[in-house]
Amino acid sequence: MADLEPTRSFRSTTSSSKWSHFIKDKKVGEGTYATVYLGWAVPIRKEKVAERLAHDHTGERERLAKDKKLIDVFSHKTNLNLVLEYLDADLEMVIKNKTVVFSAADVKSWMLMTLRGLYHCHRNFILHRDLKPNNLLLASDGQLKLADFGMARDYGDPHKKMTSVVVTRWYRAPELLLGATRYGYAIDMWAVGCIFAELMLRTPFMAGDSDIGQLQIIFKALGTPTEQDWPGMKELDGYFEFQQYPKPPLRSILTAASPDALNLLEQFLLFDPLKRITAEDALKHFYFRNLPRPTPPHKLPRDVGGVGAKRKEGKGEQQPQENGAQQRGVKRKGEFEGDEDERGAKIARRLFD
Amino acid sequence: MDLTPPPDAPPPQLFEESSQYRHWKYTPEELRELREKVNAEGAARVRKAFAEEWSVTKGAEVGPPEVDCITSEEQLALCRFYEGKLVHYCNYLKFDRSVQATALAFYKRFYLLNTVMDYCPKLYLMTCIFLSSKVENSHMSLDLFLGKIPNPPTSDKMVELEFTLSRGIRFEYMIHHPYWPLHGFFLDIQSYLASAHPRPAHEHLFQKLQKTYDRAQHFTQLATLSDLIFTHMPSQIALGCLLAAARETDFEKELDKYLAARFHADPERLVKLRMALEEVADDVTTQGDKAVNKEVAAQIANKLRKCQNPAFDPESALHKHKAQEETREREERHAKKAKLDHERRTSLEGLFTA
Q1: How many Cβ contacts (< 8 angstroms) between chains A and B?
Q2: Which domain holds residue A42?
Q3: Buried-most residue among A229, B98, B105, B306 (CB within 10 A)?
């Protein structure tokens, strides 16, 4: 499933590989620190698999190996090349493609795979910090994999300060919007809640156009938190007197959702990070035990047909692109400029400038 | 496809999935053999390079002199000496213990697979600290860093060194230290004590535990200087350090009871664990005797000066010669190509003018 089995040993291939083991094909995208190429494995191992050759500049291999399968790392001249499994679809494409119909069982299956992946990360003391449908990639057999660990970092010491400028705004937890520098796994769970709602609504649940606007939208959707809902919120740096909104029942927004789904969603979207459900508890929630049973991955709807065609239906901030893969590659450029003290970024900058 | 949630299944051993376990765990015998092998190959490289340099500078008439290479024991001693220095530098630069422990692990890993004859142990000492500060989220800017260390290399050189180091440790930056599990055991033993003893006894036992923990932290630091990081898991090292400390603070009986309580379902594993813990305790309590003094290190460093691999030294005659050769070949290729181009062009021109 979202890779809970141990990844295979890299001992034989790691760093001994060369360019000659792989053929570089066309460029599929460009990120803040890396350029992504599609590549092919030369049939040394008697196999021809589409693999992702990334000229990646981050030394995040330990994390990458966990979720999206890292196949190889090698250096050539002053480039560091990470070879990753190539997955050409993501959950955002499926959500946006209105010709794809999906059921409650499908949503349950995707949620299950997302939470398993995340449970694995959290168990390994890793905060993902950039969960969104766009970063949940889909393999051809329907498997969902967490991707884009560019914002991820290790977590363990709750006293250590971290930057609050993480997670794409629509999926950013309220404590981050209020400038919390000490936070935990709960920020990932908030994002999962937003994704859950988005899967049911087929449109981003809380799409703000600025940080303050995002808070307003959250309060409108979930009601302004009281001191009782969220003790300690007034101690956060960014706290201000919120505009008061009543708490509407979630049922009024998500009319078609089942009661167990709503119950789980409410626990993802609790204001108090300490009360918010953990990945492990979410997996044990009765939503996953009740019928309908989650759809087996290979039977999940796929974003079939030309990617470009239905991209045009996309709405919101992101501009439709010719090619889905390209979209994924370029979208992040310059998005998190404020994240200076983070480790991956630093390694990258120093190593390869 | 099995869709039952994983928390119900026995979780896979987390540490066994880490690169530290998969790529950097050895038995003491394997470690020794690997060091011998790396040293032998390194020495052969050095002899070959010296012979080449000799033929470049002196011609082939006289045979090259015999090179006295560093042995693997000497390299180990020299590295140990520099590891002591590394700790001093980390303290001086006010880095915390995780930076120090990671830098030590990088240094050990790098010189496990490479020799000091190829790569200068002094330069890589600094590089390890610098890279470690980034990996452990305590980054200091390169210029500031270079400003604080004696005889710093240029920043370009540093970036180059950092890359070589990264390749040497196979881009595996994540190091699991014994400090974290040690703290975990500290907390768990507290809850064990609270549940196993009547309330009036708690105060006294907690005080004893605190004393043991403080002492164990000292041992854990010693453990990061040893080979234990290659041979034992971080949690075993932590428990072993607690054991060594408990022997000094008269807490061993409680620790035994704690282990028995936690492993009561699996006494066989406890026996194995006890063996591992004894090895760790033995190692950390004898660490002090293994320190290498300055005179010995200076002797080895002197010897090293005469057997540095010239192929790795940009100032050496061999290196310069090779660089010259390369430029010459490149120029020849270019000249050849230019000549061909010229011929082609003139023949084409000939076609049109004819």
Answers
A1: 96
A2: 9-86
A3: B105
For B104, other C-beta atoms within 10 Å of its C-beta total: 24
Question: Are A53 and A83 a contacting pair, CB within 8 Å?
Answer: yes
Structure tokens at B232: 């034992």
Phi and psi dihedrals of A23, rounded to 5? Answer: -110, 130
Chain B environment of A352 (Cβ under 8 Å): 159, 163
Instruction: Name A29's bridge partners.
Output: A36
- Which of B22, B156, B158 would best serve as a mutation to test chain A binding (most A beta carbons within 10 A)? B22
Cα–Cα distance, A96 to A92 (Å, whole number): 6
Domains present along chain B, CATH in parentheses: 25-49+69-175+292-311 (1.10.472.10), 179-290 (1.10.472)
Shared domain check, A304 and A222: yes
Residue of B nearest to A123 (CA): B14
Which residues have C-beta within 8 Å of that of residue B123, sequence separation ≥ 6? B153, B161
Q: Which helix (H) or strand (E) holds A89?
A: strand A89-90
Same domain flag for A153 and A270: yes
In 10 A of CB A220, how many CB atoms? 14
Show which of A64, A86, A108 is a domain's final residue.
A86
Tokens of A19: 């360019």
In a domain, A261, yes or no: yes
Distances (CA, A) of B318 to A68, B50, B116, B324: 45, 8, 19, 10
List, in sequence order, every residue forming a beta bridge with A144; answer none if it has no partner. A138
Q: State how many domains chain A has.
A: 2
ipTM of the complex in this document: 0.70
How far apart CA B205 and CA A318 sit, in angstroms, is 61
Q: What is the pLDDT along chain A (353 residues), one digit of tens a residue?
A: 333 333 333 333 334 444 456 666 777 666 666 677 776 655 433 332 333 333 333 333 333 333 455 556 665 555 667 777 777 788 888 888 888 888 889 999 999 999 999 998 898 888 888 899 988 888 888 888 888 777 788 887 767 778 888 888 899 999 999 988 888 899 999 999 999 999 998 889 998 888 888 999 999 889 899 888 898 888 888 888 888 888 888 888 888 889 999 999 999 999 999 999 999 999 999 999 988 899 988 888 877 654 433 333 333 333 333 333 333 333 333 333 334 344 333 333 333 33
Q: Residues A72, A88, A106, A130: which is the catalytic one?
A: A130
Q: Which two tokens stand for residue B327?
A: 């430029």
